[in-house]
């Protein structure tokens, strides 16, 4: 298979490949988009973390301010729980975030302590952080607060929804979380960000643990999916089988199309070959007679190329100029659909001027939908057949003419022969009577004159007959070397059709060793024809069912003669001898003249030959004639 053909055959893969490229493109695009979104989420995360930390710091700063106010209010008051509890700032602080407020003296001894419960009723069960503020010069106020509550109160709701906010210490332990059950980043890898605590948030707890390395961690609750989104996967998973099925269908369709194309091309090639190799010329015409198509045979027949013929309207260039009227009349008839079904003969003119006899058959030309769109003509060149027919006809005519001439000569010669005697007798009787009258002394001029004229007339009649005979048989047999086998073949060729009509089988058994003889071929042919015709006539009496009618003609060398036998399986001669059969005017046929065999015999004898007839072995008649060999010639050929 050539690369080009291969390409053509795998063309159906193109949509599939393109679809795959498309799908991969889409996936890559989605992936890139996702990375983008992730990056964006990360940016937001960072800024959100920073802002959360700032807000918490603000919150603590606020608390610190309240604490300082409280401390200022306590300056100069007697230390004690009552004084502390009476402060409005203290109660506000306890309602907000504070867990407890402790008043320490300069030596860090507790002067008073007020603790409250948070709104959620939670006691200081976890880690606490603290804030401090000096009370004048003689003490310190310490506030404890739970970092979890700070996160809850200090982180805006919209950030709390987006993130898990946690305080994490340096050992990665969660100190406080904004949610009850925080999902750790480790459980599902989620983007998170840590911000180191600054300012008052860095305060250390009352216990010894240092919070200096603690950090605020924000973890995204709902991360942008990593990896291509499920929807994209579903679409791809649906799309690929669809496109695969579509490709398969396409491939099938293409295969079918290719097969159809190949079949079409083959058919076209076959049709072309058939049209071009056909002996029949073809032409298609529309209803106006315009030539739509001609095949090569047609072009050869009229000697014009297809380019010059197709598209032409009548009159056609191949119409003989002297038959224009007739041709156009016939053309009109054919286009009207009245062409004879069995075809018609026409005479066209080849571009070289030569005449072409054709037989034309017209049939309707139909299109693919079955509608008739014109006429299709099939044309056969019958010039050769016509010429042959003409020659045969002329040959038969000549033969008949010759036969008539021969017969006339024979009749005349027979008549002359037959009449000569009576005429001579009349003349002798005349002479005898006038002699007798002279002896008797009869001097009657009248009678003597009449007798003399009688003799003269008889002699005249004899001369006339002789002259007619001489005239009719003036053609002396021309003795020329001739091949008798050839002569027989030519004679039988002329009789073949007749024999066929009568259902007679002609059998030929010609010896190849028959030398040529000196003879008149035309006359010998007459003899053969005559004998075969007689046999055929005799066979007519024979019933067809009795094993068929047969005539066998054979030639062979018999001593110094060439002998030719004509045998039939007819009724035979019924004991009649050759003399009887050859008698002039002897015939047993109702329309017979009885001269055939007589002529044969005289022709054969004119060639120093012999004609004979006998009963054939196995029934039927056997007529044979022998002609002497051309001795000189024969001797020469023998010596040679
Ligand atoms: P015609 O053919 O006019 O009768 P012919 O001289 O050719 O005259 O034949 C004379 C007769 O000889 C025929 O009428 C026929 O009775 C007889 N005859 C000739 N050939 C045959 C034959 N092959 N078989 C039987 N009879 C024959």
What does this structure look like?
It contains 17 helices and 20 strands. It has 640 residues and is of the alpha+beta class. It folds into four domains: 13-220, no CATH class; 278-381, 2-Layer Sandwich (Beta-Lactamase), CATH 3.30.450; 385-475, Helix Hairpins, CATH 1.10.287.130; 478-639, Heat Shock Protein 90 (2-Layer Sandwich), CATH 3.30.565. The strands form five sheets. A five-stranded antiparallel β-sheet has the order 10-9-13-12-11, sandwiched between helices. A hairpin with a 2-residue loop joins strand 17 and strand 18 (561-568). Helix 2 runs antiparallel to helix 4, helix 2 (13-74) runs antiparallel to helix 7 (230-277) and helix 14 runs antiparallel to helix 16 (596-606). The radius of gyration is 71 Å and the shape is rod-shaped. 24% of the residues are buried. Mean pLDDT is 84; it is low at 204-208 and 634-640. Adenosine-5'-diphosphate binds at residues 534-535, 538, 568, 570, 573, 581, 586-589, 592-594, 596-598, 621.
Strand residue percentage: 15-25%
Largest pleated sheet: 5 strands, antiparallel
Helix run count: 17
Helix content: 40-55%
Whole-number average pLDDT? 84
Number of strands: 20
Strand order of the largest sheet: 10-9-13-12-11
- Derived from helix and strand composition plus strand pairing, the structural class reads alpha+beta
As a whole number of angstroms, the C-alpha radius of gyration is 71 Å
* Count of distinct structural domains: 4
Quaternary structure classification: single chain
Given as residue ranges, the uncertain stretches (5+ residues, pLDDT < 50) are 204-208, 634-640
Bound ligands, named by name, code or SMILES: adenosine-5'-diphosphate
From the N-terminal CA to the C-terminal CA, the straight-line distance is: 71 Å
Shape: rod-shaped
């Amino acid at each position: 298979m050539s690369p080009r053909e291969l390409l053509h055959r795998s063309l159906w893969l193109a949509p599939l490949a393109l679809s795959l490229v498309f799908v991969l493109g889409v996936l890559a695009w989605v992936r890139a988009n996702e990375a983008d979104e992730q990056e964006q989420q990360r940016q937001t995360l960072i800024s959100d973390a920073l802002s959360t930390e700032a807000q918490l710091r603000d919150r603590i700063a606020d608390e610190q301010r309240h604490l300082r106010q409280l401390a200022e209010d306590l300056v100069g008051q007697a230390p004690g729980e009552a004084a502390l509890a009476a402060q409005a700032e203290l109660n506000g602080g306890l309602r907000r975030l504070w867990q407890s407020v402790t008043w320490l003296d300069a030596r860090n001894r507790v002067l008073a302590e007020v603790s409250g419960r948070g709104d959620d009723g939670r006691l200081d069960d976890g880690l606490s952080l603290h804030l401090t503020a000096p009370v004048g010069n003689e003490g310190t106020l310490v506030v404890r607060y739970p970092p979890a509550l700070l996160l809850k109160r200090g982180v805006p709701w919209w950030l709390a929804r987006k993130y898990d906010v946690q305080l994490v210490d340096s050992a990665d332990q969660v100190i406080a979380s904004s949610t009850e059950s925080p999902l750790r980043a480790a459980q599902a890898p989620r983007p998170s960000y840590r911000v180191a605590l600054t300012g008052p948030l860095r305060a250390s707890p009352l216990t010894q643990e240092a919070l200096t390395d603690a950090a605020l961690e924000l973890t995204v609750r709902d991360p942008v999916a990593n990896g291509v989104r499920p929807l994209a996967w579903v679409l791809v998973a649906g799309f690929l089988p669809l496109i695969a099925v579509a490709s398969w269908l396409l491939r099938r369709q293409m295969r079918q199309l290719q097969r159809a194309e190949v079949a079409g091309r083959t058919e076209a090639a076959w049709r072309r070959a058939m049209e071009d190799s056909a002996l029949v010329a073809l032409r298609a015409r529309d209803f106006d007679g315009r030539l739509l198509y001609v095949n090569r045979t047609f072009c050869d027949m009229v000697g014009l190329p297809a380019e010059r013929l197709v598209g032409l309207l009548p009159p056609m260039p191949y119409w003989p100029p002297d038959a224009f009227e007739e041709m156009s009349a016939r053309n009109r008839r054919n286009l009207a659909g009245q062409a004879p079904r069995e075809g018609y003969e026409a005479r066209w003119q080849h571009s070289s001027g030569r005449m072409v006899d054709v037989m034309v058959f017209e049939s309707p030309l139909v299109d693919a939908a079955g509608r008739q769109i014109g006429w299709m003509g099939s044309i056969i060149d019958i010039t050769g057949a016509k010429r042959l027919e003409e020659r045969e006809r002329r040959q038969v005519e000549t033969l008949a003419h010759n036969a008539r001439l021969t017969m006339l000569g024979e009749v005349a010669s027979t008549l002359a022969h037959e009449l000569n005697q009576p005429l001579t007798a009349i003349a002798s009787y005349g002479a005898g009577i006038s002699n007798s009258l002279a002896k008797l002394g009869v001097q009657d001029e009248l009678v003597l004159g009449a007798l003399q004229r009688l003799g003269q007339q008889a002699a005249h009649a004899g001369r006339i007959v002789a002259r007619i005979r001489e005239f009719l048989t003036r053609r002396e047999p021309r003795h020329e070397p001739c091949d008798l086998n050839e002569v027989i073949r030519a004679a039988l060729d002329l009789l073949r059709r007749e024999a066929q009509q009568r259902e007679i089988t002609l059998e030929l058994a010609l010896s190849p060793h028959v030398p040529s003889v000196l003879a008149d071929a035309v006359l010998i042919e007459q003899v053969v024809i005559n004998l075969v015709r007689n046999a055929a006539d005799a066979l007519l009496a024979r019933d067809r069912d009795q094993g068929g009618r047969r005539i066998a003609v054979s030639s062979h060398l018999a001593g110094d003669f060439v002998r030719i036998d004509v045998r039939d399986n007819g009724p035979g001669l019924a004991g009649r001898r050759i003399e009887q059969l050859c008698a002039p005017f002897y015939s047993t046929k109702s329309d017979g003249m009885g001269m055939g065999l007589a002529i044969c015999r005289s022709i054969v004898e004119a060639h120093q030959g012999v004609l004979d007839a006998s009963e054939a072995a196995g029934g039927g008649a056997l007529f044979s004639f022998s002609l002497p060999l051309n001795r000189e010639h024969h001797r020469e050929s023998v010596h040679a």
